[in-house]
Amino acid sequence: MTRLTDPATVEMAVRQAVARTTISDIHTHLFPPSHGKLLLWGVDELLTYHYLVAELFTFAPRELTYEKFWSLPKTAQADLVWDHVFLRHGGLSEAARGIITTLSALGLDGGSRDLGPARRWFAAQKVEQYLAKVFQIANLDYAVMTNNPFIAAEAECWKAGLARPDCLKAALRIDTLILDWPTAAKAMRAGGYKTTAAGGSPAFAQARKFLAEWVAILNPVYLAASLPPDFAYPSRAMSCRVMDQVVLPTAKEFGLPLAMMMGVRKKVNPALLDGGDGVGESDMSALQNLLARHGDAKFIATLLSRVNQQELCVLARKFGHLHVEGCWWFCNNPSIIDEMTRMRLELLGVAFTAQHSDARVLDQLIYKWSHGRAVIADVLADKYRDLFAAGWRPTEDEIRRDVRAILGGSFEEFCKK
Of 38, 85, 271, 347, which is most buried, counting CB atoms within 10 Å of its CB? Predict the structure, then answer.
């Protein structure tokens, strides 16, 4: 427990700790290899991820319509992204840089202008071994998936009891239940549950039974919901009734946090499909009211709008049953990660999770954590330098403890509360 006695040694210890610490990635959209095509991986999936498809259409000529693009085979779509985003315009966006980082980390030529060698390399990989390789490169112990029982293809895989590796943990996704009760009720009714579009106590009891059975199937780390900026609580809306009579009772019964991802405006440009969602400033009074009324529940929150981040941190200072995590989606850019991580350290110490990957393509774990670690190391080096100047002399063990805290340790402590 020797204290470090000069700023340069402190900075070196911080950067080494960030580089070497194993991360728990608490929000992704991955699947087990046993789920077949649901697990996306490889260079063509990377290139046709919705970030880059949206970027393509900022450059694309008018004759390339959305309809024409989506009618093409995956390789042709990827070729168009590669041509317009990388070859003609430099690939300077964070999503584009991530492709190059990933290829280089895999030992491929990230500077090549030819996709052929990368495609041949990926075609030779076995997915189970490749998943382990990606986790090793990213230095992750596990990743939390997003598992939606209201999507038939996903539900069938889980009900079949297909194998999943220990490095993939589940989260039970319940957006449909909260935001579209009639659709959720219809799906549950098809599964033998006595639910009605009108709701009511008997139907809500059946919905709780539905969730309980899915908790047994998935053994989830938390319940999860993506919510619009205008989500209100309390309100007269069905979403509020479902929250009070289905979701929160289930969360409390099983000791599961409710993870709320707030601020997405769905389908502002539907032609872009998954890339067509936008961002809005959330009404934080909904989260504040949930926290105030349900002190016996645990909440996790990440906000999509940069505007909401300070208020979120303040709420976490006032309510110990709220855990702040991740720089989500449109906030997953180095400049914003830097700003948000500094603010969270200043307001919360290490009682938060700095980042999650939100990876929908397996390979994205590589670049999102490579880029994320670099930003987090810069911020922590500055903060420890400030602390050293104030008179504190940390040890290497203390630094490693704090780094692990914001890379998964604080999340695990919160879940155990």
Answer: 85
